[in-house]
Amino acid sequence: MINIKMQIEYDGSAYNGWQKQKNTAKTLQETLENAIQTTLKESCEVAGSGRTDKGVHAKGQVVTFACRNKPDFPMFLHHLNETLPSDIRVKSVEVVPRGFHARLSATGKTYVYYISAGEDAEVFQRKYTYYIEETLCLEKMRQAAQRLVGTHDFIGFSSLRKEELPENASTIRTISDILIEEEGHRIKITYKGNGFLYNMVRILTGTLIEVGMGKREATSVDAVIIERNRQLAGFTAPPQGLFLWDVNYDKE
Amino acid sequence: MINIKMQIEYDGSAYNGWQKQKNTAKTLQETLENAIQTTLKESCEVAGSGRTDKGVHAKGQVVTFACRNKPDFPMFLHHLNETLPSDIRVKSVEVVPRGFHARLSATGKTYVYYISAGEDAEVFQRKYTYYIEETLCLEKMRQAAQRLVGTHDFIGFSSLRKEELPENASTIRTISDILIEEEGHRIKITYKGNGFLYNMVRILTGTLIEVGMGKREATSVDAVIIERNRQLAGFTAPPQGLFLWDVNYDKE
Questions:
Q1: What is the enclosing helix (H) or strand (E) of A244?
Q2: What is the Cα–Cα distance from A224 to B54, expressed in whole angstroms?
Q3: How many angstroms separate the CA atoms of B29 and B51, rounded?
Q4: Nearest to A57 by CA among A192, A206, A246, A195
Q5: With contact defined as beta carbons under 8 Å apart, do B234 and B207 qualify?
Q6: Strands A57-67 vs A2-10: parallel, antiparallel or unpaired
Q7: Which helix (H) or strand (E) segment is B221 a member of?
Q8: Residue in chain A nearest B88 by alpha carbon
Q9: Residue A252 has what pLDDT?
Q10: Sign of the dihedral defined by the CA atoms of residues B179, B180, B182, B186, in that order
Q11: Is residue B252 over pLDDT 50?
């Protein structure tokens, strides 16, 4: 068996998230596995670097899977993209060592969240942007963002329930950078870190938005970390603004 | 009756073009008329500044329609946009004099065509961009574009059949400008003129693309105008790259 790594991008609007499900809902994983099976005439199980929720997009999701024979890559890429629906595209494919795993080998991830503030929703960006009527003070958001950067227990910024966590599961993560920029008419928030908990980027974003609106102080994020209390954090920003942007691997 | 003008934008991907049809295909005009009827409790016929083909988008389509009573505009706009599907949005609404008509009063139009050349298709722009594998020489395309600017008989650049034209119909139009720019990873061609014939922008674009690929000389566009012969022009570029960008009215 050889181990294959692919980088893919997708518009998550029409899917019920990444992870394959027992019911009939259409998922990205299943759609990709079916397309690979059609192309290679070989069934396979694809591992993603992480699950993305319903409606979340990816510019650089990474997947690995095992297959019996190495296909001709340019041909394989061409046929696979012809087989896939137009909202999923494989950007690259390569052979990686056996031990390499899209999720377990990942050492860092980048997420991007797009917001449009104080402007009318635009039909061409609606599926890729969270529109809010209020304007945002980016300076205050940046102050709050700086307090979040670092190694902390982020469970207060996730939808995980403490009592449901496996015994050894750590909720400590390192955020190395949160960049808040204006890009055309939109605000782009880039989160870089070694890993993110369930719903963490969306709750961080909801909290930063509340800071930007003046509904809470930038310093209020400290208590969420210290108290480990989801109730103290902001709302969960909706999925359509979120993109899994990139996945990093130290050695491959 | 009062006369109302609205500016609208839409993603044309899911529609069978602008114009209402007798069969059951979903059109933009019909969808808009139904939403106005739901909002105003009054049936109306909407006139667009022009028809857009299946799959063509609009950033600034203009429509007019008559209704019995002037609605409260902020409320009307809000309810209408709530009623409309998310791929159509009304940007503005105003009362105009009785004689004003979206199509008949128009004195100029701007269309934009987006191309991505020599790059892989990107899932988030696929519905709004024409992807070609070859790279394009923009300089040659600009030389051809300059030869097209002016007042000419453009029937060779349209899908109209000479023998089917009404007796007094003129196929002479004035193109005041064709601007070819790079915008991020895409090439943006902006056409400004006093009016455009059926499929004219798509055939002009197909012809310019052939010039950019080196398949024909920039000077070859002259013969299309002189000979009034569709066979001498380039292919009809596909609809998804095309946007009705703006409509001008000298006096309102």
A1: strand A242-248
A2: 51
A3: 9
A4: A246
A5: yes
A6: antiparallel
A7: helix B221-227
A8: A123
A9: 45
A10: positive
A11: no
Whether residue A54 is predicted with pLDDT greater than 80 in this model: the reply is yes
pLDDT digits (tens, 9 = 90+) for B2-15: 999 999 999 999 99
Q: Point out which residues pair with B61 in neighbouring strands.
A: B8
Q: Cα-atom radius of gyration of chain A, to the nearest Å?
A: 19
Q: What distance in Å separates the CA atoms of residue B185 and residue B132, rounded to the nearest whole number? A: 12
Please, what is the angle between helix A138-148 and helix A200-213, to 10°? 140
CA A178 to CA A207: how far, in whole Å? 13
Q: Do A57 and B128 touch (CB under 8 A)?
A: no
DSSP per position, A159-217: S--GGGS-TT---EEEEEEEEEEEETTEEEEEEEES---TTHHHHHHHHHHHHHHTSS-
Mean per-residue pLDDT of chain A: 94
**Is B53 annotated as catalytic?**
yes
CB distance B71 to B40 below 8 Å: yes
Report residue B191's pLDDT band, with 50, 70 and 90 as the boundaries.
very high
What are the pLDDT digits (tens) for A215-227?
A: 999 999 999 999 9
Q: Which residues, in sequence order, are bridge partners of residue B90?
A: B8
Of B87, B91, B123, the CB nearest to A11: B123
Contact (CB<8Å) B9/A122: yes
Q: What is the spatial distance between Cα B41 and Cα B150, in angstroms, rounded to a whole number? A: 46
Q: Name the residue of chain B whose CA is nearest to A88's CA.
A: B123
Would the pLDDT of B204 be above 90? yes
**Domains of chain B and CATH, by start:** 2-96 (3.30.70.580), 108-248 (3.30.70.660)
Residue A136: which of A205, A213, A218, A237 has the closest Cα? A213
Q: Distance between CA B47 and CA B64 in Å, rounded? A: 5
Q: Shortest CB distance from B123 goes to which of A9, A120, A126?
A: A9
Q: How many CB atoms lie within 10 A of CB B209?
A: 24
Residues 6+ positions from A75 with CB-CB distance below 8 Å? none
At residue A228, φ and ψ (nearest 5 deg) are 55, 45
Please report the pLDDT score of residue A251 as a whole number.
59
